[in-house]
Amino acid sequence: MSVFHSSLGQNSFLRAYSPGNIIIGGLFPIHLKTNRTNTSAPLSCSDYGLKTFLHSQVMIYAINKINLPNITIGYDIYDTCGDVGLALRATLQLLKNQSDPESCLVSADAQFKLLEPKTKVVIGERYSEVSIAVARLVALSSVAQISYASTSELLSSKFKFPTFLRTVPSDKYQTRGIIELVKIFHWKTVIIVGSDDEYGKYGSDSLQDNFNKKSICIECVHILSADFTTNNNSMDQTELNELLEKIQNSSAEAIIIFTKDTNAEIILEAAIEHRVNRTWIASDAWSSSPKISAMSDIKLAGEVFGFIYKQKEVPGFKDHVMSMFNGTNNTILRDYQTQHLLSLNKSEEERNQYLASYIDQDESYGIYIAVRVIAEGLRRLLKCNDHLCERSSSFTALELLSEIQKVNFTENNTQIYFDSDGDPSLGYDIVYWNRSDCNKNSTCKHCEDGAYSHPKENTCLKKRDDYLDWEDPFSIILSSLAVVGIIATVVFAVLFAVYLKTPIVKAVGGYLCFLELFSLVAGFCLTFTFIGKPTEKIHCVGVPLFGIALTLCNSCILANLLQIFLGFKFDLKAESWIKKLNKPLVVVTIISGIQLGLSVSWLTKEPPHPDNKSLDYTILYNCKIEPHTYFIAMLVYNTFLGLICFLFAYKGRQLPDLYKNASLITISMLLFVVMWIIFLPIYLTLTGKYQPAVQSAAILTSCFSILGCHLAPKCYIMLFRKELNHERAIAEYIRKFYEQKGISVVHSQCHT
Fold this sequence. Notes:
This protein has 752 residues and is α/β, with parallel strands linked by helices. 46% of the residues lie in helices and 14% in strands.
């Protein structure tokens, strides 16, 4: 069921409503302008947008595709006409704690329960300045707002907009991309055209800051009024003439227009009329505008480079439009059919094809992803499977917001998730309008996901999978070293078992040395988890598990050092509390238990997961560790243990130690600590398929430093210096040690 109501006196403003257990709100500028600044007459909307009309239908289409058992998803969609005031009015309606479609006016004595609105999430708005106003309002009720086109960098501030998310990248990345484009073409001077609204103002400010850092000359910055129009407005016409005069008389090599599409349309129309032929850089707001790109003689304006969101097609939506929306019935659609469709002097099939030509693949896909995100959040919150939702549809908006912020799924081979700023895992593409290598009889099409177009081919080529392959030279070297390490560790374990009762085995901790050897074998084996194509979560457990193995190894070494210390009265005052630590198994259990708890929490809450990133010609597969909180905590904890071992071992060098245990551990821990300090910044800045190779190399270095410095010398003594592996050799060494210090030794005692 869909209903239509009017508001604001006698003027009609579009609204489509369908009831449900859960309501998703929608805010779309189906009309692109209002008469707010031009007249004192009652407020009305004009300039019907076919593209934005289709956006509202994408939302309805996607909602109807949601399949939650025993749960009906409804919608409440408003036409904002791109106006902040109308958008706020619509938002107040959405936040009311009731779903009566007959009540569309906010009375003066209306009582709201803003904390628990019927609408749990809102999709929209398109323009940043409107989204900013809406975001401040919905935050009062902790209602999630997901915009499909608002890119203002200001909206990334969670302090100001805690419930705002979006399915398009922030302008922060777009402005960086524009800077890189200018650098690639070696342009030295540019003109920036913005507008006095949140989108144009923050975008142009960001461009100025970045250009100044790169020493690129900005010839001038021209900021249009927020409601720029030339219809019956002499001031705006004068401003437009001044802008064109600046451009014509400038030596700038590129004109960057960072404003909404309606403003860009006016500028380009004037540029064509006055034969202003320049290079234009289009922001995402108008780079894919079918209305501007279809202007007659648009080529006379010059070249146009544009930034667009990653383009993908909404599955099945074009067929849905071509079938006259497959019997769908909603108010906004009926308004289009009765008020606009019949005005086209075309057959029904031609009208459908004409409308389908307005389907974009950027904002429409953003709306589709927004609905998919909401669906995934609801599945998590309501604990749904294919047949049953364990929880009822009674929940708070804050609960749904929390689940939406944590969604992580794959759509069309693209990983979809939000970062801590509410920004998505999507990027930009660059388009070039006025170039075509196709003849008149050719038809151009977008390459599917996982494919790319090659300049010398007339078909799409499949992108190559890129990851640390088993046949890669680095993989072969790492695997070979790991096998050598495993064999050496097993041989050492056999030797320690054979000489278990001898002093030298007791000197390295007795039975504890087998725990140490086990942890080293585990570390060497985990090297193999970093090689190959990661497709399952089990392929990404190498780092958390190595954290456990490394801590176990370090705790065994620390327990061994405490035993060495307690063999000698090096400090009478400290001896009493040190003796309390002479419980090796307790020390190992406590220290390893902390890391075990940390790693289990990591693997259950935010585990590393397989990720793929589509590049120009390849798809990069790796394990994504994000956020880095647990990873850094694991490294800090183990580095701290390494430093403690290093300090104890360094101090223990002055003790009578026949086997140089403390000295060798000092070297081992020094290598270990230095290696991880070097590794962390390299890992955090390195990208590409060799990132796991660096992880693997760091693990191998850690294991070999301990194996080679701490345990290998003991095996050498067992095999080639057997005369030192006796208690009398230890006693004689201690006697000589103290005699050299001028201490008379009557009885020597060896604690091992």
